[in-house]
Amino acid sequence: MSHRRAGADKERGLPTGKERDLPAYRMRGTQAGRMRGTQAYRARGWPSVRPFGLLAGAVLLICAAFIDPPSVLRTDTETQALSPRESWTARTAWLRTASFVPGVARAVHADFAAHADFAAHADFVDHADFVDHADFVDHPQRDDNHPKSIIIEDFDSSDQDGFPLTWKAWRGDDDLARSLYTIREEKGNRYLHAADDGSSIIILKKVSEWDANKYPVLSWRWRATVLPEDGDERIRTKNDSSVAVYVVLDQNFIGVPKTLKYVWSTTVPVGTHYRREGIGRPHVIVLESGKEKLGQWVEESVDVHADYVRIFGKKPPSKAVGIGILTDGNATGTDSKGDYDDFVVHRRDTGS
């Protein structure tokens, strides 16, 4: 019986006879020693570590989704308590967003056109990385201490028919993103054109110099040229937008972003705020909808600070993460095209 068992153990590569009594260091180099940790050896009672790794990963994802301890977030040392004025601003954001800074934003964009050669962008760029952007340019109109508006991106420094400088694919392939997003020129003005081929790639620009507590209003121009058919950002199988702007002011301790996503929807009514289930899903806010303004440049001004406070219940850190752009038609399997230009942040008191 013992001979049959020894023969079976030897055939399976398991220690036999006196080998069972050898210390671990004596078994190194032997066939039995090499079999430690294999499936055959674990069958004799050694537990697999894979289930424990999967369990630990699941626990970490749950923590990322539902736990947000201030001690481990990339936040400021200053208090996160809101003043009565800030609380009121957050509560009334929807009433103020549509008409908050349009006049000032229009004046700023007109000034860009009149002073096309004004903004000399500082070149701090390391193109090998997600750079903390180089062209965070002050608007020339200032008060005593701070500029009233700051240009985040106007695409003027990027080469025509090229990919925008200091931008990078956020979710997807950089090389493929370069075929979807290209710089174009119209009446002497450069802008970003996007046409999705089903790849659905978000591109991101880091803007860590932007403090949304001091410059809470973001304005930009966009133009929807082809709307994805039956697009509905609330439904997974229809979650496509002709133009969409992501604002990431913070992220949790493992890098899951806290994202506001402003969209021009095909079918969802203006003013809708929706978030689909899932880790890291953005909070979608519909600014434009339908074909009424299709093909027209439309200017948007959004109090992103107020939206962030209203949704996440606290002030954002002093350093934003970035802004993103997405034009996609992958869910519906239809064409989707749009244009973007002139991202500018403003102090709230610019409208006063």
If you had to describe this structure to a student in words, what would you say it looks like?
It contains 10 helices and 14 strands. It is an alpha+beta fold and 352 residues long. Strands 1, 2, 4, 5, 7, 12 and 14 form a 7-stranded antiparallel β-sheet that branches. The protein starts with a helix and ends in a 6-residue tail after the last strand.
Distance between termini?
Answer: 96 Å
What is the strand content? 25-35%
What structural category do the secondary elements indicate?
alpha+beta
Order of helices and strands: HHHHHHHHEEEHEEEEEEEEEHEE
* Average pLDDT level: 74
Radius of gyration: 27 Å
Report the helical percentage. 10-25%
Counted beta strands: 14
Largest sheet: 7 strands, antiparallel
Which consecutive residue ranges, at least 5 long each, have pLDDT under 50?
A: 24-28, 36-47, 64-144
Shape: globular
Report the total helices.
10
In short:
The chain is built from 10 helices and 14 strands.
List keywords for this structure.
single chain; 352 residues; alpha+beta; 7-stranded antiparallel β-sheet; 7-stranded mixed β-sheet; 14 strands; globular
Secondary-structure blueprint of this entry?
Elements: H1 2-11, H2 24-27, H3 31-34, H4 39-42, H5 50-66, H6 84-91, H7 93-97, H8 102-114, E1 137-138, E2 149-153, E3 168-171, H9 174-180, E4 181-186, E5 189-196, E6 202-206, E7 217-226, E8 241-251, E9 257-265, E10 273-274, E11 283-289, E12 298-303, H10 304-312, E13 322-328, E14 336-346
Parallel strand pairs: 9-11
Antiparallel strand pairs: 1-2, 2-14, 3-6, 4-5, 5-14, 6-13, 7-12, 7-14, 8-9, 8-13, 10-11
